[in-house]
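== Sequence entry ==
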Amino acid sequence: MNIFGKLLPTTIDFITHRSFSMTIPLYDLQKVSRVHVVDNSKLALDGNVYKRMPRIIHCYKKNNNLTRTRLIAGLGDKVLLAIKGQMKKAIIVGCRQRIRKPNVPQFDKNNVVLIDDDGNPIGTRILAPIPAFFRTRGDLAKIAAIATTFV
């Protein structure tokens, strides 16, 4: 056998060792997703320039399919963030998507707004545009009240 036969892999190696992913693409946020905090609270302004970006550590929305264990969250869902060594609750106001969904605005960053335990926003102003359907949802009316622009 020549030297090239030992260096080049056979076709059986390509079949047994896949180098691509077989999972479906995920279009919402999940645990360990990095986000940007877009309100003007002191924790948000310091957390965006801290050595680690804020990350989602828990999603409060459960998936409808009971066989899947991955918790995902989309626009308007409540999540728990790890920001600057603290745990804070937040609402997702912008979600980056690879495939456009109908009647849902498309954002270039994953944006969140910090809230307290009662659901009131911690900051007094939101610095990024938020979806227009936040005005009609009752639980998100306080966030819509302090927003400057809608998409």
Observations:
- The longest helix spans residues 11-16.
- The chain is about 15% helix and 20% strand.
- The chain has one domain: 33-146.
